[in-house]
Write a structure and sequence with these properties.
Strand content: under 5%
Number of helices: 49
Structural class: mainly alpha
Mean pLDDT: 81
Distance between the termini: 30 Å
Largest sheet: none
Shape: globular
Number of strands: 0
Radius of gyration: 35 Å
Length: 1077
């Protein structure tokens, strides 16, 4: 503590700062953490950020720490983590020792301060794991330091973090886990008074320690908590002894039964991790023995369920049950000695849990997951022992169905939250039930038919009765809603290879009942309707479509026979007419209900998808197009017939998103028989032509209704985007293009200066979109749809944008694109500072679309960009300069924080570096981009001795910058080499391409880097490492021809393998940071 203590004494003498400065900082902290005034909190946060960045922050933190300040711990964590101007080793050692002593001598610190200081100690230890002082790894004595303490009472590279974590795992983690288990055994053998807060807290921390050891990221792939039931714990092989010894597993089961419910959830969490240990840790016999002990422990808990009423215990136990099947095979489970008794207890537990649906509803997922996996395994189990699922699975299915139906009345009576309102949860459970219900499907179908008939009959009687209460009808509608959802789910669970004619006939029984109910509810829509029931119907139709609509379905299926007998639906065409009839009915009566409208249009979109080639006469989509109802939609897509297409002043602009889906489906249907029939296309476009003319008239005056104009325009561009997306073929897309550009440019007069073509008769519609951008650039609800339409129009999907050699349309299209990007970009930059919580919606989303638009047009291969410079047209320069302006206005953190923006930026950057390198000097590259940059630089440098025209001045400036700052290329070389040697380089081919160019550009630096790496090795390994580098460049010529690159890639593969082998047993190693310096 020498330096740290001296600093403390020196600054303690500064009484004025201690009195005023500390008091002021504490006031700011209080304002930051306690005030409810946003403005005050913002000002306090700003002032504290300035404090943490000040030069004397460290010394002031020491004074703050004496007063038990959380701010001090936070600031110190930031200081020890920084990579630029890092703290000296001596100072970090002093801080670490001071923190440990501080914790030991101040037992009554606030809990959050103690936690922050512990995190500070852990951060210092982790970041200094490889730091040496006199050949001693001074930060690795963690256990010894903490033991002495108990007896007394991220900005680093990912590579280094992984190395630290791996070294800690190999050297210390198992010892820590063993220590925690030993201490737990000692605690369980003593008569602890767990009512005492200190003893209770000690046992809790021991359990947390054990859990954290088991939950360690052993192989550097942090698990996704959303896929918890798929997790496997990658325990190292060196831990085998702990799990082959049954006493470890028995310890936690014994603890569960002996400690109070407040601590037992932690025990169950540990058991969940132990149950998830990777299968390959054991051989077959060892795994069977381990599984037997695990199942015995589960049976013991089920037989003594006193602690399970606690919600936390219940949840963790459900997770434990799910792991039984996610990590073990059904064939292994049935061989466990007491399997019949255990599966009976699990089934009873599941049925009871489902019946008490209001208790811990989030835990049901794990139980259904268990039974779903068990049911799915039945066809594949080869063991001779009975699995008994044919007995217990129907009980689980029945419990789920009946409990959902019984919940409807209770929810309405008590005003509880309805599970049907959580669409994600319902869909997740239905996906699981679809597999469970198909096991012993006869029983499932019989139950559903019985319950559906009862509910439908009661509902019909209530509708016919004059004195029935609305509440009774609502209950029956809720029950029918659940049944329709469940019927759709079990039909969707049909597996073609495992299905029988009898099961198809059962599906037919269920489908007939749902369609009869639909006829009843549709007949009443003029008076009343039930939104939840309609959404269930749409879910049913979607499942029915996936299974029984399409050319792959046998039309001789017993389902179609049943539909014919009961409803007169003799073939697929008649069934499709039912689908379209339902879609039109929903759009007519539910046009103002966004959830129903969007799901209805999604169903229409799915029906229009994936039609086969035009030579396939029997395609389902061809049958669809021939329906009278579909022809009606193609000829009457106006607000008069479909209310959601109207301009409603009460709705939000974002509510019009469904229009794109509608017109995408109509566009696909139109294309089926469109061919080259321009008259049919013009007829289809009449409503959109009228809308364009309406907007044009509004914008031509100064007194138009702005909101009406916005709504009309947004609806129009969303419609057009849907059509443009659907028109993938050249013929149909050219019709749309000609509609957008109804006149051809004039070739008879001279073009104005700086333009390739005269535009006196230029398009009628594009200026309207440009004008909208100029007027409403600050309103993303208006500009984003316009920008997305333009991005779709310039996207050469399926080579649909192919112009004749005499056509200027490609150039004209790019000029309009450039104009829109420039107009939007220059205006959006005038907005100034945008609040952080609004910056994506207001600015970055539009910028991202502009990047995607520019990338699409630059890579579309329908514009020769060389003519722009040749003829002095500034369209290309304007677009690229606007891109640079927009890029410079975006903080680098935002590029990383918003994935869509990042993706559009790097995709555009790759295109630009390939063909437009003159516009770049330094941007953070991806591998492919780096390859383009390096290749460009090498080619220019090799030509630098030749006479170059004045037009290449831009390239000269670029090379000049690189010569002035060679460290940029050197940094890239060391980074790529570091990745190849130290990281898990999965795409070695891609990494090798830029590396050769970097070496040829930096031959002297590469030689120095090679010598540094060789000298860092132990003396006996230096010759082998030197040979590795010699072999890397063997046969490599000084060029970037493909043949030379391929040879280098082969050499690099051998080099990486030999270097890794050489370094495996080295105690010296190579510090990746040394290479980066």
């Amino acid at each position: 503590m020498r330096q740290f203590g001296c600093n403390l004494n020196r600054f303690a003498k500064d009484h004025l700062w201690e009195v005023r400065g500390l008091a002021q900082l504490e006031i700011l902290c209080k304002q930051l953490y306690e005030t409810t005034d946003t403005a005050v909190r913002h000002q306090a946060e700003k002032a504290l950020v300035e404090f943490t960045n000040s030069a004397d922050c460290l010394s002031k933190c020491q004074l703050l720490l004496e007063r038990g300040s959380l701010l001090a711990a936070t600031c110190l964590s930031k200081l020890v983590s920084r990579t630029s101007n890092p703290l000296p080793l001596e100072q970090r050692i002093d801080i670490r020792n001071y923190v440990l002593n501080y914790l030991a001598t101040r037992a009554k610190l606030a809990a959050f301060v103690t936690q922050a200081l512990i995190q500070l100690y852990a951060r210092i230890t982790k970041l200094g794991w490889f730091d040496c002082q006199k050949d001693d790894y001074v930060f690795r004595n963690v256990i010894a330091d903490v033991t002495r303490f108990l007896q007394a009472d991220t900005s680093h590279p990912l590579t280094k973090h992984r190395k630290i974590a791996s070294s800690f795992r190999d050297s210390s983690l198992f010892d820590i886990f063993t220590l925690s288990c030993n201490l737990l055994k000692q605690a369980s053998g003593k008569n602890l008074n767990l009512n005492d807060e200190s003893q209770h807290g000690l046992l809790m921390q021991l359990l947390k320690l054990s859990y954290n050891c088991l939950n360690y990221d052993f192989i550097g792939t942090s698990t996704d908590e959303s896929s918890d039931d798929l997790c496997t714990v990658q325990i190292p092989t060196s831990w085998r002894s702990a799990f082959l010894d049954s006493s470890t597993l028995q310890l936690f089961f014994n603890l569960y039964h002996s400690i109070p419910p407040s601590l037992s959830p932690l025990v169950l969490s540990c058991l969940v991790q132990i149950a998830s240990v990777r299968r390959s840790l054991f051989n077959n016999a060892e795994r069977a023995k381990f599984l037997s002990h695990l199942v015995d422990g589960v049976k013991r808990i089920l037989a003594n369920p006193q602690c399970l009423p606690d919600p936390n215990n219940y949840h963790e136990f459900c997770r434990l049950l799910a792991r039984l099947k996610s990590n073990y095979q059904l064939g292994e489970l049935v061989k466990v000695e007491n399997y019949p008794e255990v599966i009976r207890l699990i089934a009873n537990f599941t049925v009871t849990s489902l019946q008490h649906w209001e208790f811990a509803p989030n835990s049901v997922h794990y139980l259904l997951s268990l039974w779903q996996r068990l049911a799915a395994s039945v066809p594949y189990v080869k063991a001779t022992e009975p699995h008994l699922l044919e007995t217990y699975t129907p009980e689980v299915t029945k419990a789920y169905i009946t409990s959902r139906l019984e919940s409807v009345h209770v929810i309405l009576r008590d005003g509880l939250e309805d599970p049907l309102d959580d669409a994600g949860l319902v869909q997740q459970q239905l996906d699981q039930l679809s597999t469970i219900g198909r096991c012993e499907y006869e029983k499932t179908c019989a139950l559903l038919v019985q319950l559906f008939d009862q509910a439908a009959q009661s509902y019909q009687e209530l509708l016919q009765s004059t004195n029935s209460s609305p509440a009774e009808a609502t209950v029956q509608e809720g029950r029918l809603t659940w049944l329709v959802y469940i019927i759709g789910a079990v039909i969707g669970g049909r597996v073609s290879f495992a299905s029988t004619d009898e099961q198809d006939a059962m599906d037919g029984e269920l489908v007939c009942r749902v369609l009869q109910l639909m006829n009843l509810t549709d007949s009443r829509l003029a008076q009343a309707g039930n939104e939840r029931l309609e959404l269930a119907m749409l879910s049913f139709f979607e499942q029915f479509r996936k299974i029984y609509i399409g050319d792959q379905v046998q039309k001789s299926s017993k389902l179609y026979r049943r539909l014919s007998d009961v409803l007169g639906l003799n073939d697929e065409t008649m069934v499709l007419s039912v689908f379209i009839g339902k879609i039109i009915t929903n759009l007519k009566y539910w046009g103002q209900c966004e959830p129903i409208t969007s799901k209805t249009l999604q169903l229409l979109n799915d029906l229009s998808l994936g039609y086969p080639s035009l030579c396939c006469t029997y395609s389902s989509v061809r049958k669809l197009v021939k329906l009278t109802a579909v022809q009606f939609m193609l000829n009457n897509h106006t607000s008069e017939h479909f209310s959601f297409l109207g301009v409603n002043n009460q709705s939000n602009l974002s509510d019009m998103r469904c229009r794109t889906t509608f017109y995408t489906a109509l566009g696909r249907l139109l294309m089926v028989d469109l061919g080259e029939d321009e008259d049919q296309f013009e007829q289809f476009m009449l409503p959109l032509t009228a809308a364009f003319e309406t907007v044009a008239q509004m914008l031509s005056t100064n007194t138009f209704n702005e909101q009406e104009a916005k709504r009309t325009l947004v609806g129009l561009v969303r419609d057009l985007r849907g059509i443009a997306f659907a028109f993938n073929a050249k013929t149909s897309f050219m019709m749309l293009f000609d509609w957008m550009y109804p006149h051809t440019p004039c070739y008879t007069c001279c073009p104005p200066p700086g333009e390739l073509l005269c535009s006196t008769r230029y398009p009628a519609y594009m200026p309207i979109l440009q004008r909208a951008i100029e007027l409403w650039y600050h309103d993303p609800a208006c500009t984003t749809p316009v920008l997305k339409l333009m991005a779709e129009l310039v996207h050469n999907r399926s080579q649909r944008l192919q112009f004749d050699v005499s056509s200027p349309n490609g150039i004209l299209l790019f000029r309009e694109t450039s104009k829109m990007i420039t107009t939007y970009g220059n205006r959006i930059l005038t907005l100034g500072e945008v609040p952080k919580d609004q910056v994506y919606g207001v600015k970055l989303k539009g910028v991202s679309v502009c990047f995607a638009m520019l990338k699409a047009v630059l890579s579309g291969n329908y514009v020769n960009f060389g003519v722009f410079r040749l003829y002095g047209d500034d369209a290309l320069d304007n677009a690229l300069q606007t891109f640079i302006k927009l890029l410079l206005s975006i903080p680098h953190s935002d590029l990383l924080d918003y994935p869509k923006l990042s993706q559009s930026f790097y995709s555009l950057l790759e295109v630009l570096t390939q063909d437009h390198m003159g516009f770049f000097a330094s941007l953070e590259p991806h591998v492919a981009i780096l390859d383009h940059i390096v290749t460009y630089l090498f080619k220019q440098l090799t030509r630098s001795t030749k006479k170059r025209p004045a037009s290449m001045a831009t390239d000269d400036r670029f090379l000049h910058i690189m010569r002035q700052h060679p460290e940029m290329i050197q940094q890239m070389l060391s980074t790529v080499l570091n990745i190849i040697i130290f990281e898990d380089c999965r795409n070695q081919w891609s990494m090798s391409r830029p590396l050769l160019g970097l070496i040829l550009l930096n031959e002297k630096y590469f030689a120095d880097l090679r010598n540094s790496i060789v000298n860092s090795q132990p003396p006996e390994k230096q010759q082998a490492m030197h040979l590795c580098f010699e072999n890397l460049m063997e046969g490599i010529e000084r060029n970037l021809l493909t043949k030379n690159r391929d040879r280098f890639t082969q050499n690099l593969s051998v080099f990486r393998r030999e270097v890794n082998d050489s370094m495996k047993n080295s105690t010296y190693g190579v510090n990746s940071n040394d290479m980066m310096s």
